[in-house]
Amino acid sequence: INDPNLLQLLYIQWCAKEAMYKACNVAHYDYQNTYTLPGFRFDGKMPGSAIGRVILDDGSCKNMNVRYFEVDGCVVCVAW
Prior knowledge:
Elements: H1 4-23, H2 31-34, E1 35-36, E2 48-55, E3 61-71, E4 74-79
Antiparallel strand pairs: 1-2, 2-3, 3-4
């Protein structure tokens, strides 16, 4: 990937889903559909935030706050 913003976007998406998974673990895990960042657009600036969505085991949805930032060249995400 030659676009650094695209690479950071992919890092943020992966890291955010992992953070949501750890904060709100559900039994039926589907990486693509259970943990999402609907409408998220990365503007190339760090730090930032997003609203994540988790589909719970009963089919209901829970919104989660996600904060992302960089530490020593690595993307870090925190979800709550």
